[in-house]
User: What shape does this take?
Amino acid sequence: MQMNDFPKIPVILDGDPGHDDAIAWTIAHGSGRFRILAVTTAAGNQTIEKTTYNARRVCTLIGLKAPIARGCSHPLLADLMNAPSIHGETGLDGPALPAPVMEEEPLPAVELMARVIRSCEEKVTIVSTGPLTNTAAFLLSHPELRERIGRISLMGGGLGFGNWTPAAEFNILVDPEAAKIVFESGVPILMAGLDVTEKALIYPEDFERIRSLGNPVSGIVWQWLEFFYRFHRNLDYKGAPMHDPCAVMALIHPEIFTMRDYYVQIETGGDYCRGATVPDWYGITGEAPNATCLVDVDREAFADALVGLIAAYGKGVAE
Ligand code: RIB
Ligand code: CA
Assistant: This one.
């Protein structure tokens, strides 16, 4: 079957662009596999003002004409944390982007989520690549629509380790209370945690493959990769870890991942482990699994698929 032979999955893209969010959205749109109903922005990598401006710029670059709405400016309870050391002061430092032609919708993200989920004839997948504040706020504000969410495919957590503290990954740590609400919601979760995203590496030679595609989007993506890799190269990474793209790629090419079902709890207390995603490896709690967790990936297949999805922009991506 060709990519376009598959039925399109109705999705909401929720994230905090952010270089890897931008690449995740780029491959989602380029794949032709999704009916992107809405784009909603989260505060995380940068402030909500900056991530929303970046969302407008990314959607303009890739020609994604879905409605864009600004999300919560702060976590549910915690103080806001940003990540300028990784994504820069703008949240999307690096190549100059076209001025945004996409405007924000005049309603908050939670209400745009409700509008598109209520009117979609199928269940909607939420693809979350930032802190889970918006998704949690939506679940709290519209419990009557919970059953209309088919799945939440999220980048977040780590079954065995963190990246912002030894125990916690950034997206979960920014808003652990929101993550707890989402993981306890009963909505099926596809979790791309650090266990897999740190293996989904795009090597410098892959940057060159993308640069040589020579289309308007590939010319930006390779520079995003190059910028994102600067931080990681200093930590002896062999390539740029594609955290957020894993939450999209797992929906397009599940066959290149290894997945395991676990009951995952979110630590919201503690001095050392707040924000940890704690898997019940041996079923000790007796609770049924609440998350399908990505635990391994065929890196070469991942890199080839990502290059192929960026190449799609040279052939005219469906509006
Ligand atoms: O820990 C990685 C996650 O934090 C990614 O979503 C990245 O964009 C940042 O938000
Ligand atoms: Ca992100």
